[in-house]
Design a protein that fits this description.
The protein is an alpha/beta fold. 32% of the residues lie in helices and 20% in strands. Helix 8 links the parallel strand 11 (250-255) and strand 12 (273-278).
């Protein structure tokens, strides 16, 4: 009888014929997929199948993977078979883990077996391991000699603990309690440590405690850091993460037709977690004949300019071109004008560049002011196509007509008010469970109040400009922040400055530093029974 071969042996033969498929094990940052390396992003960009752990943000993965990629949760006895089968079919597979495969004790999973079977068609992209993340997010500078101890499965006897200038201990649930009990024997009840929970997330908490003060009940994962770099006076200089002005703030952003991903990134830079609420829904025009005629005119060379006022206008044109089996070459010879960064980005994703965008202000009115006048000596055509929503872009149409252009507007899509958000979101809005609300247009103000009600008086209100602020005041809202410029960057920066001032005022007044949502709530009076 032939003995079974060690699956990790380099002599193990491949189990399938060579194909164009491959598998890449990608490690990401604990608590934040934004810590993914460039190599990890590149692997996701070309993936056909992505397998992720339960604690990985699937929506964030979806934004990094191509549209055709299948995303599924890891687990099950057939995971190895599924991966190798996909590779054999020529697919590029990414197995994503929130950590690092070779330094996290619980990360190996199917890695050894797949690596041995897939051979040269397998790759590993290192991720940020939990140990370095704990030091960085905790603001601790390790000594030259530091050691890591993982006790999530078993807590070794105190005599077996490593000795180093800086010691990082990972605990989980009951094992964390055992670590604290044993540490008293080694370091004493008065020994200092940094206790870290929720590493890398906006709910992270880090405290310098003594071992006698540690409370670890019902902790999913925590870190204990022992060493000379944890003293409060020294560590305050490096408390970069929890010291962000909007750290752990829960922000709600009503979304109309614009993409707010750039805004959420800006707010995340200051430590906030942003939840988007759709207040507007995009639907096709009631009839398709006008759009079909317009697209045929583009292909036949009827227009000299195509003016796009939103990403949805780009999508509407592109969808109809692809329906006819055409691509961006159909727009050859047509000049493109775009309003808004989202519109420019939508064109860029299709391999197209805008020939004209407003410089002074990203509005349709500003575009009309900067648009070139028609010159019959150099312009072969005088027609401009403006596909837009069923809401008129009158300033643009009037402005272009005055410049001598023959403008044809066509309804490319319709905007309708979205359905109300879930009941728990509406309740959190009205009861002040959000720390701030950011409005990016007057329409967002009207629509959000219409479908979800007014934000609580304790919620900080930030507006992107004077017109949006005026709409807030008309609806009885107190405006705390008005952006200096009508950009997402300025809006997020303005909210962060407000939070900094608020924090400074609380400290100066000798008050505890709290978020807007942290306040004393009045207890509801108990109804008195008349019969009593």
């Amino acid at each position: 009888m032939t003995e079974p071969q060690d699956p990790m042996s380099p002599a193990s033969p491949p189990e399938f014929e060579p194909t164009g498929g491959s598998v890449t094990f990608v490690g990401s940052g604990p608590g934040d997929l934004g810590l993914l390396t460039l190599a990890g992003c590149r692997a996701l960009r070309y993936a056909d199948l992505v397998i992720v752990d339960e604690n990985v943000d699937i929506e964030a993965v979806r934004s990094l993977a191509p549209a055709h990629a299948e995303i599924r949760l890891a687990g099950g006895d057939d995971e190895v078979t599924d991966i190798l089968g996909a590779v054999a079919r020529g697919q590029k597979v990414v197995r994503l883990h929130a950590g690092d495969y070779f330094t996290d004790a619980d990360a190996a999973g199917v890695l050894p077996e797949v690596l041995a079977s897939a051979g040269l068609r397998a790759n590993v992209v290192p991720g940020i391991n939990r140990w370095s993340a704990a030091l960085s997010f905790g603001g601790v500078r390790a000594t030259a000699a530091f050691a890591a101890l993982d006790t999530t499965v078993d807590v070794p006897d105190i005599d077996e603990w490593p000795s180093a200038g800086t010691l990082i201990i990972r605990g989980c649930g009951e094992t964390a309690t055992q670590v604290a009990e044993q540490a008293v024997r080694r370091f004493g009840a008065d020994g200092s440590l940094l206790y870290l929970v929720g590493t890398g997330s906006t709910s992270q908490v880090s405290e310098v405690l003594t071992w006698g003060e540690v409370q670890t009940s019902e902790v999913a994962e925590c870190f204990f850091v022992v060493g000379p770099g944890i003293e409060d006076s020294h560590r305050q200089r490096y408390a970069w993460f929890e010291g962000k002005p909007l750290f752990d703030w829960r922000v709600i952003a009503p979304r109309t037709k614009d993409d707010l991903s750039a805004l959420t990134e800006e707010l995340a830079h200051y430590g906030a977690t942003t939840e988007l609420v759709a207040t507007m829904s995009i639907e096709p025009p009631r009839t398709e004949q006008a759009m079909e005629k317009a697209v045929r005119g583009l292909v036949d060379g009827r227009y000299l300019w195509l003016v796009l006022t939103s990403p949805h206008a780009v999508s509407a044109i592109w969808e109809r071109l692809t329906e006819y089996g055409l691509d961006s070459r159909a727009l050859s010879g047509i000049s493109l004008a775009a309003v808004g960064r989202g519109t420019v980005d939508a064109l860029s994703r299709l391999g197209l560049s805008a020939d004209l965008t407003p410089v002074v202000e990203n509005t349709t009115g500003a575009l009309a002011n900067e648009f070139p006048a028609y010159d019959d000596l150099i312009d072969p055509l005088d027609r401009v196509l403006v596909p837009s929503a069923d809401v008129s872009v009158e300033p643009l149409l009037v402005g272009l007509s005055r410049l001598g252009w023959e403008v044809e507007e066509v309804t490319a899509y319709r905007t309708v008010r979205a359905a109300p958000p879930p009941a728990e979101v509406r309740d959190d809005i009205k009861t002040g469970m959000y720390d701030a609300v950011v409005f990016t247009s007057a329409t967002a103000v009207r629509n959000m109040i219409g479908i979800a009600g007014k934000p609580h008086a304790a919620t900080v209100v930030a507006a992107i400009g004077p017109a949006t602020a005026a709409a807030c005041e008309i609806h009885g809202l107190r405006v705390d922040v008005v952006a200096d410029a009508p950009t997402f960057e300025s809006l997020a920066e303005g909210l962060a400055r407000f939070a900094d001032r608020r924090r400074a005022d609380q400290i100066e007044a000798g008050l505890p530093v709290t978020k807007p949502s942290q306040r004393k709530r009045r207890k509801r009076r108990k109804a008195v029974d008349p019969a009593e």
